[in-house]
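Predicting structure from sequence has reshaped protein science. With that in mind, we have picked out one protein's residues alongside their backbone shape tokens:
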Amino acid sequence: MMTTVTVGSGGRITLPKKLRLQLGLVAGAHLTFSQLDDGRFVVRVKKPVSSLAGMLTRADQPAVSVEEMRR
């Protein structure tokens, strides 16, 4: 998929809704731009730490608090 956007006043761009949905972007989301050696840019969605919540839980075991893990 290729999308072209226009830079408006103040350097702002508006991403089309379809692209925002595909990337999971909401208001306040952060994007990281990295320039490759050949001049191209890679754009990555910077996920908040809160998006990792529950990532390490196992369905066959009850949730454990940090305090319980430290015991």
